[in-house]
Amino acid sequence: MLKIGVIGCGAIGKEHIRRLMHLIPNAEVVACTDYFIDAAKETAAKYGIPNVYQTGEELIAASEVEAIVITSSDASHAAYVLEGVKAGKQVFCEKPLAQTAADCEAIMEEEVKQGRKLVQVGFMRRYDPGYVEIKKVIDSGELGEPLMIHACHRNVSQGEGFQTEMGITNVAIHELDICRWLLGDEYKNAQVLKVKQSARSTKGYDNPQIVLLETENGSRIDVELQVSDAYGYDIQCQVVCEKGTLNLPDPSSIIKRSNATCSTTLMTDWADRFIEAYDIELADWVTKVEQGEPAGPSSWDGYAACVAADSLNRSRGTNEFLKVEMIEKPELYK
Fold first, then answer.
1. Could you tell me which residues come within 8 angstroms of residue 257 by beta carbon, excluding any fewer than 6 positions away?
2. pLDDT per position as a tens digit, 205-228
3. For residues 101 and 107, what is the distance between their CA atoms, to the nearest angstrom?
4. Spans in the chain with pLDDT lower than 70
5. Domains of the chain
């Protein structure tokens, strides 16, 4: 049994605890904590977690904790991950890995000192069956080289305090990772455009936005980003190759014919759309950690997405593509 401590007992934290306690037979949550300590106590009581700590640092240092799952606020991720790596413990961190490239680099430097990968970043789309099938076809060469990706990310709502830049660092960060993964390529240039704004979006942040990317091998990517006020939670992806195209399948749903209409239900929640991917992701992380080290998205992947996001946000309002400049890839991540 892998003994796990969870930092962050909000919505996704509770969902991951449920997965680890009820769906993954070789995992056990032995400790939890939250900025709001009452939330941690309530979660511990609900799931029978024996230890509640006042801080993430105390949980990381606890002798009974072998591995750490971080689902706290974005701004807290980097410090907790770095502390976990310094302690030599395996860390699963929900996206983003950090909010600055410098923090990502510090995490990688510590991993290199340890001489092994200790971090997996929660880019769960790599475990979604639809994206996995697209990746298989691209890698097979059946359709020739991938030339373009057209994608969209449409959300129903955002919480209080959401800002324009978070559309990239918190929402489109998934596209930044999954497109790199599908193409097996790094980004060269990036630009974000403010387009005609929705009259429904009056909350003080840009909505929608268009993300444009160019990879080192010349592939082009465009992402339509609606962070709120869309008709549902809708994720689309089309890869245009030399000999054909690949489209991400929509989630399974019945088609209802009634009263002279034909309809199907759309999802409104990301947790429902990617529930299978989350289940597969955490089960794989636990298995791979028990075998030696994680095999999913690494600190380098978190860093690459962070650098691209930073270039995009810096490009806003300039009408220019900006270079995506990364450090040389450490041998550990090759």
1. none
2. 999 999 999 999 999 999 999 999
3. 10
4. none
5. 2-125+276-297 (3.40.50.720), 126-270+305-333 (3.30.360.10)
